[in-house]
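Running log. JK asked me to keep both predictions on one page so they can be read side by side. First protein, sequence followed by its tokens:
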Amino acid sequence: MEFNRKHLLGLEGFSREEIIHILDTANSFKEVLSRPIPKVPTLRGKTIVNLFFEASTRTRISFELAQKRLSADTVNFATSTSSVKKGETLRDTARNIEAMKIDMVVIRHGAAGAPLFLTQCVDASIINAGDGQHEHPTQGLLDLMTLRDKFGDLQGKKVVIVGDIAHSRVARSNIYGLQALGAQVGLCGPSTFMPYQAEHWGTEIFHSIEEAIEWSDVLNVLRIQLERQEKGLFPSTREYRRFFGVTRERLEHAKRDITILHPGPINRGVEIESELADSEFSLILDQVTNGVAVRMAALYLFSGLNKETTDA
């Protein structure tokens, strides 16, 4: 299919066909990663800057590795050693970067809408690596790819996102992507972790982890994001584990196979039992592997190679 988007800001509004095209492209790059020399010249001559205003391990390393596998030139921007510490604005940072003839920007920022703002400041393609409590589209795509590897068609599959929905950008990208592919989506967590707009998302809402497990084929377990929360949203991690922790005992009570995803980092023994994260139920390491392939696909498709592009 013709792919004419310039920016990847989120999965909201993406069609089933567009998402499948990205995932099919990721599958082709996954084959590249299995080669003795896992590198192709696809983005040779392209310069990509990684503009991370928040701490990140998996996402940043995954993007850097994807860029190297595609033979792109990579520039890493660290806010701790940049002019941001001296008061430079995002607009000025962006314009200075563009003056260096950058082709693409991968940005993670604590403010929702920062990637969208960047599209108004520079001509480069923008890839959102997570913005505030808005979206994390490549995480959503790699979760979809992991489930597609296991189930094939996701039409009618029941996926429950468990945990801190209100503060999660991963949850939003998963909801939009899963619904586009025909899956049924549920949300589970304390009422204080449910955003006010959840009732408009067309999802099932559970306040009992047992009921959520009984309904679901897949649990996508989120960590409690203490760094984005106000105090007083739940009594303690011990209480959260007691009422909403995903444990082997709870899964086995369902008497059927349940698949576990987790975007990481994992708070072992809080939102998920430590042993369960490494068990036969878990596809967590598959998610990590698929992350590089998905980001290779995103960098390639949104680079504008061999086609005319329009803003998305």
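And the second, directly underneath as requested:
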Amino acid sequence: MSLSVKHLLGIKELTVNDIEQIFITADNFKGVLNRSIKKLPTLNHIAIANIFFENSTRTRISFELAEKRLGADVVNFSASGSSVSKGETLIDTVHNILAMKVDMVVMRHSASGAPWFLANHIDASIINAGDGANEHPTQALLDAYSMREKLGDLKGKRVTIIGDIMHSRVALSNIFCLNKLGAEVTVAGPPTLIPKHIESLGVRVEYNVKKALEWCDVANVLRIQLERQHKPLFSTLREYAQYYGVNKQMLDSLAKDIIIMHPGPINRGVELTSDVADSKQSIILDQVENGVAIRMAVVYLLSGSGKRDGIEKIG
């Protein structure tokens, strides 16, 4: 059990077999996470640095918990309050951390392409925890894994991604991952938040959210990323919620039940109302739980332990 890549930089670099290997490994780790004793000694020979140059709660905690569940030594680095604020470069920061004999780096950075840049300059394995508006591969993997738990094989399943497609690394990674797994994808939202020529990625575009929901089996609803918008792209959040938000009345009017997802954090009352986020159709908390198992699987497989030990020895 191993991946065809040394780093997890983006979904584009993964094969379908890689994705399936990650899912199979995550299945095993979910069993471990549901035991009374959740910690394994599997990676007690590995040191991992979590280097976050952007704010994060769910992703950072999920990675840290996944690494500690595997028994790895974990170092957490935040750019705020570090030497980065004094002008230290990314390469110098990472080289100093690697001098402490770190084997793997999990990095989130505001600059698109930063993980690829790093992978070309250091020997440690790199996991992309989100780079700018480019990719967020582990989020796409846990999203697809969560869909698979509910729907089985994703081939031919219909997934609508709703919201700020323009600025979302989650949207791009989801499109790449779902395409590889044979799902049909539609993106929906206001025209100002949907990139031109996105159809070239093999997706449909729909500006009417109600029609997009009627079409799909799964709706993955994204947050409006105001921090990445450098000019007004819609009038007000209230207007956005009225025309592009998903509410319970809208869901109840559909001819079928669909699955509701959200990568978090949720702006309640904007892209989702609370009665939708907390409904039986929502699997948002399942996504959070599955995130730990998926990240355990990625770290395990990239460490080389899968190739050395075999999946049957997990746990």
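Observation for JK regarding the second prediction: The mean pLDDT is 90.
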